Amino acid sequence: PHGDTGSVEGAPQPTDNGFTPKCEIVGKDALSALARASSKQCQQEIANVVCLHQAGNLMPKAVPRHCQLAGKMSPGIQWDELRAQQPADGPPVRIAYMLVVHGRAIRQLKRLLKAVYHAQHFFYIHVDKRSNYLHREVVELARQYDNVRVTPWRMVTIWGGASLLRMYLRSMRDLLEVPGWAWDFFINLSATDYPTRTNEELVTFLSKNRDKNFLKSHGRDNSRFIKKQGLDRLFHECDSHMWRLGERQIPAGIVVDGGSDWFVLTRSFVEYVVYTDDPLVAQLRQFYTYTLLPAESFFHTVLENSPACESLVDNNLRVTNWNRRLGCKCQYKHIVDWCGCSPNDFKPQDFHRLQQVSRPTFFARKFESTVNQEVLEILDFHLYGSYPPGTPALKAYWENTYDVADGPSGLSDVMLTAYTAFARLSLRH
Predict the structure, then answer these.
(1) Residues 355-386: b if buried by 16+ CB within 10 A, e if exposed
(2) What is the DSSP secondary-structure string of 355-402?
(3) Which segments carry the region annotation Disordered (predicted)?
């Protein structure tokens, strides 16, 4: 992600709906956010955050570092086909999969669950609060399995928002407290992810690296990363929007890092993040509450400054289809005051990239059946062989666009216009 730089001071002013901040707001970004926020509640939140920040009472000035390493510990682990086939010491690890989903693609979600499902693992699904149809379908699906659960709470998790980190932290606490769910690793997936190696290969690999945390770093100069990621800017989420409110300082005393928000974490590290009273975690939680794309940096930064810093492996075990020219078009400006990038969909011609020979990768993203389903069929065949002859609808894909339980309010303006037009046409004949 990348965005504008610079901020200028400006005079405070009442907003159109009569809201007046409690302090003198200065700074172009903060005043712009106040002027654009539509609800009084959001304006109040923005003003409170800015006033605390201007008074120096919001951000931690310094954060303790417990890592004894002078530099960054991020060794790579190579994929060895022969070693991968050798059994691991100790019992096989068990995985808690956190599935973070939204939209309406229940068929693709079922396909993903089928591909990664194993009776020894656990599956926890969060459905975005705006996706009611998908939530109903997922609840019905989870009833069929003892080791699949749906979060009893839901959040609106916007792209780049602080809500995504809150969702992960709450889900992690839930997973630690489910009776009988004795998992060893936490893996987060979206409905557009898909496995590229078998469950047996993944379990064997993690069983041989059961004390490692797998997070992918940005791989560039830290100061450049901080600027491009907006970590030196103050953000606040309200009204389903991330508002840029001005500049801020990175806390002293720590190494700030980040990269991908898809990771594989040990249970012990998750317990540390969720339960510790360590000021390192508490103060970084405060810092990342007002951070753009916090899930892309929070866990990296906590781990690299914690006593467990030597457990970091700079690889999140995924291959992602990045094409900056196609994927970086500021497509999220309507929900965040920044420019961001998204990966592209894999297609059949990309299959060679999914077969990583030297790197241990077990998942890939993105896949969207509405764009191309053939690549998923190729992957399925590669992993599990052919489907039985006569399998129905193997080449077909359907996605629900309307459910009677939602009523017309569940339709977008485009869909409502299209359906109304079809209804009018039918009445003519």
Answers:
(1) ebeeebbbbbbbbbbeebbebbeebbeeeeee
(2) --SSS---EEE---TTT-SHHHHHHHHHHH-PPPTT-TTTT-------
(3) 1-21
H/E element, 320:
strand 318-320
Distance, CA of 262 to CA of 280 (rounded, Å):
22
- The two tokens of residue 246 are 């001005």
Q: How many helices (H) and strands (E) does the chain have?
A: 15, 12
Fold classified for 81-211+317-384: Spore Coat Polysaccharide Biosynthesis Protein SpsA; Chain A (3.90.550)
The Cα–Cα gap between 317 and 371 comes to 24
The C-alpha atoms of residue 271 and residue 275 are separated, in whole angstroms, by 6
Residues 51 and 22 sit within 8 Å (Cβ to Cβ): yes
Q: Which tokens sit at 67?
A: 């890592």
Which residues lie closer than 8 Å to 73 by C-beta, 6 or more apart? 67, 304, 309, 310, 312
How is the chain split into domains, by residue range? 28-73+216-313, 81-211+317-384
HSE of 227, CA atoms in CB hemisphere, 13 A: 8
Can you state the angle between helices 374-384 and 106-116, rounded to 10 degrees? Answer: 20
pLDDT tens track of the chain, all 429 residues? 433 333 333 334 445 556 678 899 999 999 999 999 999 999 999 999 999 999 999 999 999 999 988 766 555 565 566 666 677 789 999 999 999 999 999 999 999 999 999 999 999 999 999 999 999 999 999 999 999 999 999 999 999 999 999 999 999 999 999 999 999 999 999 999 999 999 999 999 999 999 999 999 987 788 889 999 999 999 999 999 999 999 999 999 999 999 999 999 999 999 999 999 999 999 999 999 999 999 999 999 999 999 999 999 999 999 999 775 665 667 678 899 998 788 899 999 999 888 876 789 999 999 999 999 999 999 999 999 998 988 888 888 999 988 989 988 778 788 888 888 888 888 886
Distances (CA, A) of 237 to 151, 230, 294, 337: 22, 14, 12, 11
- Identify whether the C-beta of residue 134 lies closer than 8 Å to the C-beta of residue 104: yes
